[in-house]
Amino acid sequence: MNLAARLRRLLLVSILPGTAVVLLAAAPTPSRPNVLLIVSDDLNTRLGCYGAAEAKTPNLDRLAARGLRFDRAYCNYPVCNVSRTSFLSGRYPEVTGVLNNATNPRLRLGADFQFLPEYFRAHGYATAGCGKIAHGTFSQAVAWDYYSEPQRGGEEDDVVRDGKQKGAKKGGKKGKAAAAAAAGSGPAVPFPWQATTNADEEEPDGQVARRLLRYFSAQPGKPFFIAAGFHKPHIPHTAPKKYFDLHDPARMPTPPEPPGHEKDIPGIAWAPRSERNLTIEQRRAIIQHYYAAVSFMDAQVGILLAEMDRLNLWDSTLVVFMSDHGWHLGEHGGFYAKMSLMDESARAPFIVAGRGVPRGAATSSLLEYVDLFPTLVDLAGLPLHAGQQGVSQAPVIRDPAAKARESAYTIVLRGGNKIGRALHTATHTYLEWPDGSRQLYDAVTDPREYANLASQAAHAGTLQAMTALLAQRTETVNRGRP
Ligand SMILES: [Ca+2]
Q: Is residue 426 included in any domain, yes or no?
């Protein structure tokens, strides 16, 4: 070591202790809340906490009991990549230009664009994600401090650290799950399912919460932004057999609907995966499979909540639970799956709990999934992210009787690039299709959307008002185009 280097070292040794004291004194107690974002996939509001007593969702019920449930939260587009790109960017699908599952969000929004976790990371948060946050194929479009995507077999084989992918390989080792034969019986149904003999942690979704636990306390000096993305109840409805056993297919609800009401639903509005000729046994079996996948996902949420308890994080952390859109289970004479603008597909769960959130509350205030980004930014006290199109729901979170928006807007494509649009207000839901078809429902007296009022003279005034309001919203949304 030469003289200059020895002097530098001496200086460092003599200065560092003092500097450390100054730095410690200057470092404020972390005042920004941690964020735990939990995203399920193809999950509708048939949860215990939303009034579906037959669903077995004790952990989500517990989360809702200590937080605020939004009863009228709507996705902005009922398909995975489109919805996720929208709520992770805070922009409407018509503005992101991501309108299908094949478009790469990063390519559309640009190399420098900061998606939600990246924005928090840029503002000093330690970020960790696991599972399906951005749409599967494009999970690498978003950079994290840590990210991994569980593969069947449970091997942590494609880890991203420091925003860079390391050693990624798709497929993973063939695990027990892949080999586990379907256990169970029942009628053949058009949606794939499997009751496995696996332990939870041998399923990919069983890995998501478990992999994230270490990040709750990994960087004590920094607030965390942790996101858990569960693939269930997306098809295939795969879960360990014990979750199927929770649900007796014979008791699955298929409540009667007004006979013939579906004749008022225009053909273009039908969900692409409609099934009009299933037997009652087939319909009940699909619901059982779906509920099994939901209960399995719920159990994984429970692991995250238990860690919140164990580390006493509820007063310092914001927890959001949501889906990417809803899912039909045979309503309206045979609607299944997604890509419909009717209630079961467009409306989806949204629960907030933790720091500053009232306990055991519910609100009928309207929320759009595009509101997620500005709401979290607002609650965390971060500067507004440029170009955000949603509104902050913080006023509603502080006072569930407040409202943050007058309407909620959802679109879906039909026939290539023609757009069907839905507008939900406090009193009505209005759907307008590119072939001129229209649907109007009374959101208060007919929330299940059985009576289409669009052609009834008595409702002509409402129809006209909703048409004008939708045109205005469409214009406002598209004004955000780059
Ligand atoms: Ca989805």
A: no
**Count of the separate structural domains present in the chain:** 1
Q: Residues 104, 337, 393, 358: is their CA dihedral positive or negative? A: negative
Q: Where are the alpha helices (DSSP H) in 123-175?
A: none
Q: At what angle do helices 204-212 and 280-310 cross, to 10 degrees?
A: 20
Ligand 1 centre and the CA of 41: distance in Å?
4
List the one residue out of 344, 331, 235 whose CA is nearest residue 276: 331
CA 228 to centroid of ligand 1, rounded, Å: 14
Ligand 1 centroid from CA 16, angstroms: 52
Assign residue 315 the CATH number of its domain.
3.40.720.10
Which residues are CB-neighbours of 151 under 8 A, at least 6 positions away?
157, 158, 170, 171, 172, 173, 204
DSSP secondary structure string for all residues of 86-124: HHHHTS-HHHH---STTS-HHHHH-TT---HHHHHHHTT
Distance 232 CA to ligand 1 centre (A): 9
Does the residue 414 lie in any domain? no
CB atoms under 10 Å from CB of 10, counted, come to 10
pLDDT tens-digit profile of 336-357? 999 999 999 999 999 999 999 9
pLDDT in tens, 87-129: 999 999 999 999 999 999 999 999 999 999 999 999 999 999 9
DSSP 3-state helix, strand, coil percentages of the chain (rounded to 5)? 35, 20, 45
The DSSP code for 142 is S
| Residue 228 forms part of a structural domain | yes
CA distances from 181 to 22, 156, 176, 185, 265 (A): 62, 23, 10, 12, 40
Helix crossing, 58-65 with 280-310: angle to 10°?
A: 50
Pairing relation of β-strands 224-229 and 34-39? parallel
- Whether 430 is covered by a domain: the verdict is no
Boundaries of domain holding 154? 30-402
Are 228 and 304 contacting, i.e. CB atoms less than 8 angstroms apart?
A: yes
